[in-house]
Design brief:
globular
Length: 71
Amino acid sequence: DQTVGARVRDEAARREETLAEFVRVAVADFLAEADEEAWASLVSAIHDAPDPGAACLARMTAFRLQLEGSA
């Protein structure tokens, strides 16, 4: 999904992180902090998406931004 990709690139650049650093932190934040509802939402999004990887990245990125108050 180009929209997700653009947002991830923009957010990484804004934080002076590489794309890989931004995604690594987003995944780590999700794994460490997500509750049952967030996990259920992620699994549902992946299941229903034509591109499960993009859906996963979008959810984990949104979760990181919400944790940081940037969403």
